[in-house]
Amino acid sequence: MVLIEIERANIKLLKQDGHRAQELIHAFDQVGDWLIKFKEHRLSVLDDLKIKPERVHNVRGVVVAGREHGYDAAHMRALKMRTNDDLVFMTYDDLLGAMDSLILRVERS
Hints:
Layout: E1 2-6, H1 22-40, H2 42-48, E2 60-64, H3 73-81, E3 87-90, H4 92-108
Parallel strand pairs: 1-2, 2-3
């Protein structure tokens, strides 16, 4: 199961010093809170969603926000490396790249 937080494409991702901007911190915290609630109340959440527990082996969170242009490349790499097995960050540029790859694979099939 994947819990996705989608923010605006024009959200500020990073401050000048490379640290996350407040809006992005809020998005990460929100998904983190969802993951905690899911882990604490797994069966109730799955029951509410009408999903059988045996169909969900783990849950992950994804934050999709912003574009990469205008940011220092090293700061952007560091931001993306902050992800872990439970929480992944992607920009809209990442999504576009993934869609381009998928389209090429489908066209080659």
